[in-house]
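// run 5 | inverse folding | seed 20
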């Protein structure tokens, strides 16, 4: 009997994994590849296009609070991202808390845009707390 093992992303040689990554856009890299496993995180950290990524724009994507975790993880891990535009999504106050927590550890992001995201006063308070720690980032789209 022949043992047919289907290769997975976790077991593929790194060269093949890079070739797959070469065909993904920034959203797919951040939202589908990050935090799949410790191996994929290690690969992401050595992948040159990801290491150079400085601007991400996820506007009008319908991103909801329960979908922000991959973006928050990418923001926490990034040392090159300087602009993140998330205008016209549905992030809400809870999602705002996740991003605010990420801003407490990421000191490279200079601009975060959050126009029209259903973020109310409670969400703004999370960002005000984060700005006590992070004086680098400018947040647009909120009344801070």
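// decoded
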């Amino acid at each position: 009997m022949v043992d047919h093992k289907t290769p997975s992303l976790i077991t593929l040689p790194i060269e093949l994994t890079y070739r797959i990554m070469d065909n993904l856009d920034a959203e797919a890299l951040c939202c589908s590849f990050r935090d799949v496993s410790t191996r994929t995180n290690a690969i992401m950290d050595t992948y040159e296009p990801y290491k150079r990524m400085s601007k991400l724009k996820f506007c009008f994507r319908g991103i909801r609070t329960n979908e922000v975790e991959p973006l928050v993880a990418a923001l926490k891990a990034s040392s090159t991202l300087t602009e993140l535009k998330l205008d016209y999504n549905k992030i809400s106050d809870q999602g705002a808390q996740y991003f605010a927590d990420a801003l407490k550890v990421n000191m490279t992001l200079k601009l975060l845009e959050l126009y029209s995201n259903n973020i109310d006063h409670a969400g703004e308070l999370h960002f005000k707390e984060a700005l006590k720690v992070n004086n680098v980032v400018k947040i647009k789209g909120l009344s801070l």
